[in-house]
Amino acid sequence: MGSLGNWWLSKGERVAMTVFLGLLIVFVIFYFSRHLADLSLWMDEGFHTIATQEILAHGYPLFPSGHIYYKAILYTYVLSLFSLLFGFNSFTLRLVSVLATAAAIPFIFAFTRKLFNKIIAVGCVVLFVFSLWVVENARLALYFSPLLFICIVGYYFFYLGFFEEKTKYKILTTVVFLLAPLVHQLGMSLWFSFLALFFIRGAGRFFKKDVLLSFASISLFYFLIQLHEFFFWKVGYVYEKTELSFQGMMDYFFSGFSLGYFKELFRSFPAMSLFVLGGTFIALVKFIPRPFPGNRGHFSRFNDNWLFVALCLFFPLIFLGFFRTHVQPRYLYQLYPFFLILFVVTVYVLSQAVAQLMTFSFSLKNPLFQKMISGFVFIFSLWMFSDQVSLAGVKRVVNRYYNDPIPTDTITRSGRFEHYDHQGVGEFVKHHLQPDDIVVAIHVVFQYIYVGRVDYWLWSGGPGTWDAWEKTPEGWKDFYVGARWINNLQDLKSLIENNSGRRIWIITSPSLYRLDHINHEIRKFIQQDPRKLVFLGKDGLSGVYLWSDTQSELSQDYHSIEGEWIPLREGKIVFSPLASKKAELFLSRQRNKRRIFKYQLPYDLPPGRYQVVVKYKISEAEREPWLGLSIRTKTRRAVAEHRFYLHPSSSANNYSKVTGSFRLDSPAKLDFLFLQEAGYSLSIDWINIIDEQKGHVLSPYLTF
Questions:
Q1: Exposed e or buried b for every residue in 363-390, given b needs 16+ CB within 10 A?
Q2: pLDDT digits 0-9 by tens, 330-369
Q3: SS3 611
Q4: Contacts by 638-646 with C-beta closer than 8 Å and gap 24+?
Q5: Cα-flanking dihedrals φ and ψ of residue 650, to 5°?
Q6: How far apart are the two ends of the chain, measured CA to CA in Å?
Q7: How confident is the model at residue 2 (pLDDT cuts 50, 70, 90)?
Q8: Mean of the per-residue pLDDT values for the chain?
Q9: Distance (Å, rounded) from C-alpha 546 to C-alpha 534?
Q10: pLDDT tens figures, 446-489
């Protein structure tokens, strides 16, 4: 097995590997950043966006509530630096993760080649680049990708410093280990590499001055970070502090042991986890003969490093089993390179074993046959047993848009089945907002970003849903942006009644449809009158409801579908004083390409006859333009097909209408698919679905 440890490269191989790695890096930077800003900020991106915004304004992350956001503070300052250089926007914030992912590639390769060989290193970086877990995290303005980068750098420097005894890397190791938890405290998983050193090299090596000095300084710093969180953090923590005592600290950080994180790996990567677990067992078995005199020759450098990687993965996993936190696969992301390495090493060793068995069984003496067999088994096994790794999957993530499904049962586990449009609803309010208006929001963090201010936080969920409230001299507020907290219908009604002369914007999120976030009576009150819905996000879930619109500028009437609600990447929302809700969807002309877009009403239509009316205007028409409409059920059964010939508008302010009809024989939820022929620009104001029997326009949502 000793030949497995050959890791050096010839000059020609170095050139080839440099080109290979360069191509992977270029692919990640350019392809992963495609459509990077098309979707709204979401999940925990909002916290770091506000922190970055406040650093640019004040020099430190002082939240609008008056609390300092210490969490991931180094990462937040990196975001601020990039925003200062390239502009403060979602593209720049997310680009940091893309670049961190690209920067991790050569370090993963170098680390794996150093410990094993170039074949395993190539396999690891290829799987890394085409992993769905990697592309998911690489496109978020969150700390997970930068954390993975600094951790793999730390492990690489640790190996060079304390296994290969290179003095300068011992210093660099200490510096990187100290910086890692400032990217996020999960970076403390680096600490367990010292335990791996102890078990592999023994107490004699561990209790030397260089190791102890680095170990002691890092341990003390990590302990102080945890003390700082417990005593000084007001925002960013996971659980409420029960009491400021030693027992309270233990209860805050630790709980009973759980196998939750092991289960998460098996859930997301079932086949790979079996290889990793089996490979770790093999590495431990090979380690057993080592301590006994006369058996040391049976243990190679390759096996030594195999066990080191296994311990660096499993020690943090065991520790997280005791640590009190929500079980989320993303908390393991910084360990993902080790998971990949163990998988590829195990596959490689098995391919070598199969090749040797075949060579012996068939008496194949030519070494070329053994290489061909092992190479085929290695590549085939990587392709066959790699979970969540594919170019097609990467493309789906990169091209994801609103209403595209997200498989939350694996990898992301965010509880969100599609991307939420906090941006669309916020920017609509911001465009119409007047100084005397009142803004009420369910998700105050994102609406502070997109609207610019939030006066009231609407949330009826109890402890454990989103514990973001605190009692202040002015009353209960959220502790992120300092918005007053409304947690019941009576307080919401009182706010509206006591401010009858002021417009009140209620910005909802998908939490409106979760009873543990917003109770039924609040939702019923908000959605009792469809005229108050003045904007719907492209996710079809987030909305803007307006009260006290005394001039009836936006809430005079309602339509089944407003053009600007249609989720279309190429579509542009244009604010127009003559449009229904002062906004319309503009679709630019395409010379030689048709455009398909669709909208789905969020409820089943009963049987009956219906009319479809489209209010539109066109421009830049090269020939007689037409618009196709296909009405289909969820099973893609066609209900009706129409081709509408459109009339050019006499002026930019004139709209026209086209009408079609369809019959529905059984209840169904319908998709309205439109086909815009090439050669003209199209603006859609609204689309109405009219029940012919009752003679009324269908509501944009199912009313109570």
A1: eeeeeeebeebbeebbeebbeebbbbbe
A2: 889 999 999 999 999 999 999 999 988 887 777 777 778 8
A3: strand
A4: 639/663, 639/664, 639/668, 639/670, 642/612, 644/614, 646/616, 646/618, 646/621, 646/680, 646/682
A5: -70, -25
A6: 71
A7: very low
A8: 91
A9: 7
A10: 999 999 999 999 999 987 778 788 999 999 999 999 999 999 99
Residue 403 and residue 148 in contact, taking contact as beta carbons nearer than 8 Å: no
Task: Phi first, then psi: give them for residue 302, nearest 5 degrees.
Answer: -55, -50
CB 233 within 8 A of CB 345: no
Residues 6+ apart with CB under 8 A from 633: 639, 668, 669, 670, 671
Q: What kind and span of H or E run contains 633?
A: strand 626-633
pLDDT of 256: 79
Between the alpha carbon of residue 16 and those of residues 23, 112, 130, 374, 644, the distances in Å are 11, 17, 20, 22, 57
pLDDT tens figures, 370-391: 888 889 999 999 999 999 999 9
User: Which residues, in sequence order, are CB contacts of 212 under 8 Å at separation 6+?
Assistant: 206
Separation of alpha carbons 142 and 138, rounded Å: 9
Which tens digit of pLDDT belongs to each residue from 281-327? 998 887 765 554 444 443 488 999 999 999 999 999 999 888 777 77
Q: How far is CA 87 from CA 12, 56, 92, 93, 447, in A?
A: 42, 11, 7, 9, 20
The angle, 0 to 180 degrees and rounded to 10, between the axes of the packed helices 11-32 and 90-115 is 160
Helix/strand/coil percent split, the chain, to 5: 50, 15, 35
Q: Give the C-alpha separation, 555 to 519, whole Å.
A: 25
Contact indicator for 507, 428 with CB cutoff of 8 Å: no
By three-state DSSP, how is residue 508 classified?
A: strand
User: Which residue, among 387, 334, 368, has the nearest Cα to 130 in the 3D structure?
Assistant: 387
Phi-psi region of 477 (alpha: psi -120 to 50; beta: other; left: phi over 0): beta
- Model confidence at 5: pLDDT above 80: no
**What one-character-per-residue DSSP string does 526-560 give?**
HTS-GGGEEEE-TTSS-EEEEE--TT-SSSS---S
DSSP assigned state of 460: -
Where do the domains of the chain lie, and which CATH numbers do they carry? 2-392 (no CATH), 428-556 (no CATH), 560-704 (2.60.120.260)
Question: What is the pLDDT averaged over residues 145-157?
Answer: 98
Provide, rounded to the nearest whole percent, the portion of the chain with pLDDT above 90. 76
What pLDDT is attached to residue 346?
A: 96
Paired residues of 471 in beta bridges: 476
Asked if residues 284 and 307 have their Cβ atoms less than 8 Å apart, the reply is: yes
Residue with tokens 């499904």: 405
Q: Please check whether residue 173 is in contact with residue 162, taking contact to mean a CB–CB distance below 8 angstroms.
A: yes
How much is the pTM? 0.93
Tally the residues of the chain.
Answer: 704
In 255-294, at which residue ranges do the beta strands (DSSP E only) sit? none
DSSP 69: -
**Pick from 78, 89, 88: which is nearest to 145 by CA?**
78
Read off the DSSP letter of residue 254: B
Cβ atoms < 10 Å from Cβ of 541: 21
Is 244 a residue whose pLDDT tops 70?
Answer: yes
Q: Would you say the C-alpha torsion 48, 51, 56, 60 has a positive or negative sign? A: negative
CA–CA separation, 76 and 53 (whole Å): 10
| Joined tokens for residue 333 | 């992301």
- Could you tell me if 114 and 121 are in contact, meaning their C-beta atoms sit under 8 angstroms apart? no
The tokens for 244 are 């400021």
CB-based contact 420:440 (threshold 8 Å): no
| Per-residue model confidence as pLDDT tens digits over 251-289 | 767 787 888 888 889 988 999 999 999 999 998 887 765
The predicted structure's pLDDT at residue 414:
67
Residue 646 is given by DSSP the state P
Q: Sign of the C-alpha dihedral, residues 431, 37, 132, 324? A: negative
CB-neighbour burial class of residue 565 (10 A; exposed 0-12, middle 13-18, buried 19+):
buried
